[in-house]
Amino acid sequence: MKKSKRRNTERAYEDSGFIRDIISSREGARVLSCIQCGTCSASCPVFEVMDYPPRKIFAMIREGMKDKVLLSVTPWICASCYRCTVNCPAQIKITEVMYELKRICLKEQVISERTDANRFYSIFLNQIIKYGRSHELGLMIKFMMLHHPVNLLQQVPRGVRMMLSGSLSLFPHRIKNAKTLQKITDHALKLQKV
Amino acid sequence: MKYLYYPGCSQKSSAISYERSFLAICDVLGIELIELDDWNCCGATIAISVNKMVSFLLAARNLGLANKYNLPLVTPCPSCYVSLNRILKVCKESKSQSDQINTLLAEEDLTFSTDTQVYHSLEFLVHIIGLDTIRERIRNPLRGFKIAPYYGCQLVGSYVNPDNNGNPQSLEELIEVLGAEPVKFPFRTQCCGGSLMFTLSKQAEKLSGMILQSICRTDADLIVTPCGLCQMNLEIAQKKNHGKIPRQRPLPVITFGQMMGLAFDLDSGTIGINKKKILAKQNIISLTN
Amino acid sequence: MSARVGVYICHCGSNIAGKVNVKAVSEYAKQLPDVVISREYQYMCSEPGQEFIVRDIRENQLDRIVVASCSPLMHEKTFRATLQTAGLNPFLLQMANIREQCSWVTEDGEAATLKAKALVSGAVGKVRVLAPLKQSYVTVSKSILVIGGGIAGIQAALQCAETGYKVYLVEREQSIGGHMAMLDKTFPTLDCSACILTPKMVSVSQHPNITLMAYSDVEKIGGYAGNISVTVRRKAAYVDHDKCNGCGLCQEKCPSKTDNKFEQGKSKRKSIYTLFPQAIPNKPVIDKSNCIYFLKGKCGVCQKLCTREAIDFTQEDKIEEITVGAIIVATGYEIFNGHKMTNYGYGSLPDVYSALEFERMVNSGGFTNGQIRTQNGKIPSRVGIIHCVGSRDERHLPYCSQICCMFAVKFAHLIRDHTNATVYNFFIDMRCVGKAYEEFYHRVLEEGVRFIRGKAAEVIESQDNTSKNGQYIVKVEDTLAGSVRDISLDMIILANGMEARNDSRDMARKIGIAVNEYGFFLETHPKLDPIGTQDPCVFIAGTCAGPKDIPHTVVQASAAAAGAISLLEKNTIALEPIAAFVNEERCTGCQFCVNVCPYQATKFDTERKTSMVDETLCRGCGTCVSTCPSGAMEGNHFTDKQILSEIKSLLVPV
Is-contact C287 C251, C-beta < 8 A? Predict the structure, then answer.
């Protein structure tokens, strides 16, 4: 009885579709050749706030531990600095795999509660799609109002200083062809749903 | 010498002094930069984390706009540089991907070509324009100055000149040509945490703090960087970590454009040194006199 | 009279029959032109399989045979012998490869069957028009050339010489010994490397059957099977070695110094020098690029002091021609250049050493006289050894260099033996596969050496001046303890991988053998013929064929010697009967064929104004045939008629 129960647990990990998805993507093509050397983890500047080091993420992907991987905060913490990718002896595009994992998380709506990066991302992207360019002040206010109102207050003096020096504009710049850009990004979104 | 110029969003706001100094030195060097008309955000590291097609499209639209000019494109932003080169690389490898993007761009009567050259401003000046041309314009050699070359992470990333092998040298070369001395420190290409400023601000400060501390242990007078985001982030961290860094005087963080502006003897308004939050004026002015 | 063809389809167990419908192929073959008999059988290469063929030839007067089975590389020899047994010319055989080129690479069974039918039809088409060929033999020169005087070359040379063959041992450096002469101790027995190597070096110099050609390069290789002509360049030493008695006075007094390569550039040597004290031959040479006399035209201190008048600045390179029956290639390896891994700081951080630098440091004859010291002369208290430097890295050497784990363990032991330092090994996987290797690893574990499973990501300079910690920090994920660690160290040693010599491709071209993708010489078969090459007279031994340690190198060298010896024991050797020939009436005398032949087999006959082929030199590669603009060159066994007939039959709709 006990034995069969353990077997079931084991089987739950074998989500081979997940592995197939990852390795069939351009980014993940070399995941199977990871030798678990840990160069990525030791190269990572933000390793200490990750729940799993990148090396473990690759081990878990290979074992099909889809839920664990998607619920991990690691991809959301990744600073996109490419240091792991530069150093990886197996030439795995680690940063790109992290992007891919974030995309899968968003697509399947499985996101760790310990991050709000996803919300920041969506504010940022919406802003770009709307105006064609990013607007730092708007981004800051919108994101911080939602999530860190106290922090926002702390930032006020700096913001004022920056505005006075001309390095922070009050209003977003909208590109001329913003309408068309919105239209084609809509097409793109249809082609590949978030 | 005509080139296309893609500023990237930061260069129009927080890194405006970076842009001004870069444009000013290009002017001195006789380089005509044509700003890409109606350019849009490259998508940075964020669009690609949300939707691949959208991120490719955002980057490709700029290349589509550039295609009409048939000129190489220069950007001062390392992150834009990565985004634009990523799409070029992806589409060089996959015709179907490139066709798909071009179909979308057709809505705006644009097509892009994978043959477009995209340079980062530092690589552009050091390798394309060349150190000899730069040397000729020096009016005020930075003799006696010790400068810490801080590259940031993006320029050594996976899309960049593969033979620099994680060990770039162009800042060092530039510093030497301007008459100053590059200072060695361990975290030249370490991430400053810039991309985490909003989502993990503590971590971001810690990373920039680590870089600053390592430079503070040297006898550097200045930090120079080819990235507007790095400049801002190091400045913020410097302010916050001030007490923790064992150093008497502040350590100005300037972009390589500003450094060249100093050596070309451009006025401080043009190169935006007066905007620095760290009081470094005395330090630098004493040199110019 | 039309031909009488027998066709034999092999199942190869399930290798072929699992995919191809062999019965259908056999039935199909029965109706092909001139086919008298068609059979299928479990294993054609087995004795009963071959007996079928012999019996059929005799009973049915077959005069042509088609075997559809594996690649001719595997069994062409077998079936040619079968034909010979039955009294048929062995070249009246055609093989159809329905395994490697069909069943193994085709997913769909029906498609595979169709393809097998077409291949068999093509083979029948060719075999019908094949002509018998005559096998000719030449006598073999009873001498052997060994290229490279490292441990592999030394071992092979001694073994061949002991058997009574004349051996020419060519070494590019001025002394034999190779890399092994640089090593301090050898794993796992901790034998002193020089102590076990130098007796063999002395034997080489004393052996009456060995001509040692040190400070020499193999310039050119020509000739034909069993009679290989070799051009050797004897580089000018500017010292007459017949007169020199090796007293060493010149070296002592020479005023010019330069980096000592044997000591990995960590100490200086004179411009007139021997490689190391136990060098064989132990006679100095002058390094022209640094010698003051050669640079400035004056000095000549050595010449003035030499009582034997051995110094001769006018000496020139000499060219010597030798003829040998076989060649053993033992040209060795290079260590991976640590500069390529910029994240480890080799070359910019002074106390980061390469493996060979450490070997010289810890050797009592080396640049620190065997003392383990940092650049500042301090005894290190924390030493790190980084494994897999270059090896197992897609950017550099994707393969495992095999010896590094073990020499890293040896280094750890030597450091513990010489100092009280804490030693860290940063490894990805420990590979201790060899006799007593695992035991040695355990011994070193018990000596308290730390083994951290994780590849060092980077080495940075420590900026912590206050504590007593080391000058460097290694960043590594301790994948077993589950944390990223910053380990502070005084000294770092890299376990550099092994790579093919950078000129291995040139050497291969010179000899006429192949290299693999990494530049290591290619063996005939990785398992069953690891010493043979595509040239039956050339054998490979040691690290030029791939990374390996000393015991395996010695084993392979002995095997290569045995290969060469058994070749020469036969007295004669069969020449390749598949050769090119000239249709003189068509030849216009353009000489294109003369220029393209890689074996100098085609020559121009100035009297007859046509090209001609030296059949002893021709290896039947067909380059001249495809080059000839007038169609005068043909290759027997591959004549236009034969090839066209094969193609035509291949294309017959099945």
Answer: no
Last residue of a domain, one of A90, A108, A126: A108
Is the Cβ of A81 closer than 8 Å to some Cβ of chain C? no
Q: What CATH architecture does domain B2-120 belong to?
A: Up-down Bundle (1.20)
Inspect the interface and report whether the beta carbons of C394 and A38 lie closer than 8 Å: no
Tens of pLDDT, residue by residue over B91-146, are 999 999 999 999 999 999 999 999 999 999 999 999 999 999 999 999 988 888 89
A23 & A98 share domain: yes
Handedness of CA C67, C69, C71, C74 (dihedral sign): negative
Nearest C-alpha of chain B: how many angstroms from C460? 6
Confidence label for B164 from pLDDT (cuts 50, 70 and 90): low
Which residues of chain A does B153 touch, with a Cβ-Cβ cutoff of 8 Å?
A: 79, 81-83
* Same domain? A59 vs A139: no
Topology of B139-288 in CATH? Rossmann fold (3.40.50)
C20 touches chain A (CB under 8 A): no
Is residue A46 located within the same domain as residue A142?
no
Residue C167 lies in domain: 143-235+318-332+503-569
Identify any residues that bridge with C604 across adjacent strands, giving them in sequence order: C611
- Say yes or no to pLDDT of C49 above 70: yes
Other Cβ atoms less than 10 A from the Cβ of B130: the count is 12
Q: What SS3 state is found at C187?
A: coil
Residue A77 sits in a domain whose CATH number is 1.10.1060
Asked whether the beta carbons of residue B186 and residue C343 sit closer than 8 angstroms, the reply is no
Number of domains observed in the structure of chain A? 2
The CA-based angle C375-C379-C385, given to 5 degrees, is: 80
Grade residue C466 by pLDDT with cuts at 50, 70 and 90. low
Q: Which residues of C, range 350-389, sit inside 8 Å of A by Cβ?
A: 388
Which among A108, A128, A160 is the end of a domain? A108
How many structural domains does chain C have?
Answer: 5
How many other CB atoms sit within 10 Å of the CB of residue B246? 8
- Domain hosting A79: range is 2-108
Residue A165 has pLDDT above 70, yes or no: no
Could you tell me which residues come within 8 angstroms of residue C298 by beta carbon, excluding any fewer than 6 positions away?
Answer: C292
Spell out a b/e string for B25-35, using b for 16 or more CB atoms within 10 Å of the CB, else e. bbebbebebee
Kindly determine whether residue C460 and residue B187, on different chains, have CB atoms separated by under 8 Å: yes
What interface predicted TM-score (ipTM) does this complex get?
A: 0.89
Assess contact for C547 and C527: CB atoms under 8 A. Answer: no
Q: C586, C630 in Cβ contact below 8 A?
A: yes
Q: What is the mean pLDDT of residues C511-534?
A: 94
Q: What is the pLDDT of residues B202-244, one digit of tens each?
A: 888 889 988 988 888 888 888 999 999 999 888 888 877 654 6
pLDDT the model gives residue B246: 61
Q: How does C41-58 read in b/e, with b if 16+ C-beta sit within 10 Å?
A: beebbeeebbebbbebbe
**How remote is the C-alpha of C169 from its chain's centroid?**
17
- If asked whether residues A14 and A102 sit together in one domain, one would say yes
Find the residue in A nearest to C396 (Cα). Answer: A89
| Average confidence (pLDDT) over B25-50 | 95
Kindly report the nearest CA distance between residue A22 and chain C, in angstroms: 20
Same-domain pairing of A102 and A121: no
What is residue C239's DSSP assignment?
B
**Chain A contact set for B44 (CB, 8 A):** 124, 134
Nearest by Cα to C93 from C3, C21, C22: C3
Instruction: Work out the average pLDDT over A38-67.
Output: 95
